[in-house]
From TrEMBL, chain A:
NCBIfam families: nirD_assim_sml. Residues 12-114 form the Rieske domain. It comes from Chitinophaga chungangae. CDD domains: Rieske_NirD. This is Nitrite reductase small subunit NirD. Gene3D superfamilies: Rieske [2Fe-2S] iron-sulphur domain (2.102.10.10). The gene is nirD.
UniProtKB/TrEMBL annotation, chain B:
Pathway: Nitrogen metabolism; nitrate reduction (assimilation). This is Nitrite reductase large subunit. Residues 633-769 form the Nitrite/sulphite reductase 4Fe-4S domain. It comes from Chitinophaga chungangae. Its cofactor is FAD; [4Fe-4S] cluster; [2Fe-2S] cluster; siroheme.
Amino acid sequence: MSTISSTAINWFFACKTTDVPHNGGVCIKYKDEQIALFYFSRSDTWYATQNLCPHRRQMALSRGMTGTHQGEPKVACPFHKKTFSLKDGRCLTDEHECSLTVYPVRLEDDRVYIGIQSGVEVGVPVTVEAL
Amino acid sequence: MKIVVIGNGMVGHKFCEKITQKLGINTARIVIFGEETLPAYDRVHLSEYFSGKTADDLFLAPAGWYVSQGITLHLGDPVHSIDRVNKTVTSLKGISETYDFLVMATGSAAFVPNIAGTDKKGVFIYRTIEDLELMKSYAPRTSRGAVIGGGLLGLEAAKALLDLGIADTSVIEFAPRLMPRQIDDKGSAVLQSKLQQLGLQVLTGKNTSAILGEDTITGLAFSDGTSLNADMLVISAGIKPRDELAAACGLETGPRGGIVVNDLLQTTDPFIYAIGECALYNNMIYGLVAPGYEMAEVAATHITETSRQDSSALKSFTGFDMSTKLKLIGVDVASFGDPFPGQGHSIVMEDSISGVYQRINVSQDGKYLLGGILIGNADAYNMLLQTCKNNMPLPANPADILLGPRNGSASAGAGVDALPDEAVICSCESITKAAICQAVTDGQETLDAVKKCTKAGTCCGGCTPMVKDLISATMKAQGKYIRNVVCEHFDYSRQELLDLIKVKSLRSFDEALDHYGHGEGCEICKPVVSSILASLWNDMILAKGNDTAQDSNDRYLANIQKGGTYSVVPRIPGGEITPEKLIIIGTIAKDYNLYTKITGGQRIDLFGAHLGDLPAIWEALIAAGFESGHAYGKALRTVKSCVGSTWCRFGLHDSVSYAIRIEERYRGLRAPHKIKSAVSGCIRECAEAQSKDFGIIATEKGWNLYVCGNGGSKPQHALLLAQDLDSETCIRYIDRFLMFYIKTADPLTRTATWLNKLEGGIEYLRNVVVNDSLGIAASLEAEMQSLVDNYKCEWKEVVESPELRKKFSHFINAPEEKDPTVKFETLRDQKKAADWK
């Protein structure tokens, strides 16, 4: 894992906090790409991943059910219920499945920002360790 | 100590797993040389590479495993020579390594018969992922395929050609029948006709004399003067042990190939072992993975013990049962024990209608099972194999073990309880019944936990049903109440949770989690709690913040389909619809470019709707008098009907009117699983009511009520609950039946499965519903009535609420835009979803 300093991250405005349902996700359009944004109200935490489920390449993760597996936040794809960690994007139900790209999320008042590493196309795996 | 392993196939890999397990990581230095460029993969499931699996899916170890075990892996670099005097191997690239022990797991190569022209373009062998990739890139130019070899591998190769889209594929076998080594003439004939039904040509008794064509294959010539056109050929006529390296360094090899080994798997040099398909034990090559794994175990044990100078638990290889069960192109094929014994009796069951052939061989005295063959249906394989291997006595009438008990006598097979402790349940990993039961006793009480702990069922998976039975049986024997708690977030069964939520009058998932759960919930408990809430209160499911706790189809009140669009199903009660309404459905489908199809439940499904279009589509449907069909929910789906006495000359009662009444009564009713129903107007049963969760059939005197039937993958006929009922009583019984099911069933359990598990079965259920043995009939009826009174069309509520409508957009920050990745193709003048990638 590599640590990416905040200067290398380009933060874009995604939506208002009130646009996102509690304990669920929405899909954000960023340029020609799609990012799934999730809000866990009990722990007041935000996560963002690619919207594409790598299993059958469907744009569906934002519509998936969220939850935890032994404390680790996860989302289940609506198609075949493969689940992915929202912390590091790895697939929790199939160790051979590809991982999701995860993105850092930042709040300013009621505005939600998602961080894209500058110079890196959305969808290309980048692991972010420290935010 | 230093161990060099030659070969990184399944058996070589298994040896590394075993030796690191026994010695501990980093106790020995282990170096592997592999000829292929890929690390060890699952060759047994190689043909799945063409049905969608990738090389990644087939790898036996996760990336980084070898490093984590301290093993050096040289890929794409075969060993070139062995110097036994200096105990050194040298690879093709020039790497030299000394060894204390050398393990040869060189496997086998495809046997290519001596036919002129095997070097022509379009001729392939079927052995490695690389071979498969070559076939894959060649296949698009091909319209007629052929396979030489009608054994196990040949049929696998034929499946690969079918999977590559070459529909016109022929299998050529030299012997007069398919799979000559495993099954008998009649079995082969049944298999052959089954494969021919699936589109495969089968030519037996054919000796290929030449491969035709200039540089590229155009066909095959046979010794009987006939020929066959083909532009692609796969040779899969058997295997040839890779013993050339062993022979070159002076180890003894067999006359027809194979490195000679003793029962410790040592070659004629005690520091060199040979395991897997390259080893010749007792004049036999073992061409299956399970004996190869057993050899890996024996060699690893012996090396460990030799290095510790401890021979306490000496283990030896004593040959291996070659029983096998496979699915070849969708047809079950199994043989076990001795399929062709010289003496004794045979019991044969042949059913040429459904293509099933089963033969068991029984000892002269009729007491023991010697072996057998199963074609077309091998469900009984595991039990038969165990009965045979453990020398268990047969029932008094041995045919019962094949055909099941008849004439109402008691059950024949005694099930897993009767197996001895030493019975090997998983033969790939050689795991005994005792080991599995011990794991369960130690607290591994789920299939996944047992698989992880014992490795049983992790290779071919054939023993999984038996492992499951052993888990339940062991837990039951310990007097453990098998309590199906919902998931890690709720330590309650569904039934307990329903009672608790009712007592506390909880109305949302969050409240339920606060009171009775922990953590954040998950995709298992959220739909369960949401279903319970709906079954108790029938509130609008998207209200009170419950929308994200719904299963994702319920959250969008539509069924997600391939590509991410949704299907829309308006309710058409009883399947009756006016011409005006039909026209409106057609108009809406045209307006929104939807694919239309009549469903099995007598309604119309509209596919391919964008998420953002759903509210507008429903606004139009509702304006025309339609309402939600709840096709997306675990809820009442349809009440199918035949036309009944209004038109039919046989009809006894008006089945359509009754079906409509019932569908309107229970519409929107949410349950542990979906519920289907039907009403037939006479005994001819055109509405197929006996395949439904509850079905009603008209009689001269009233209605017969059947319950707990099922179609789908495990069809089951519904059972008669009560007969000759008047319309009102029938509905009261249905109220009680449905409410009792809703309150007591486990999540995602259909009524048929629920009844199968219900102690006392249909008799008990009849007592509860008809005789009110629990004294709850009145409250069940009252609870159902309150659900019926609370019904509202949830789509109508969404359409009328701007707040709810907002939730139906793909992009939250661009609500007007649709998902640009959605793609359609055209088929028979309508659209269809683009295929999965």
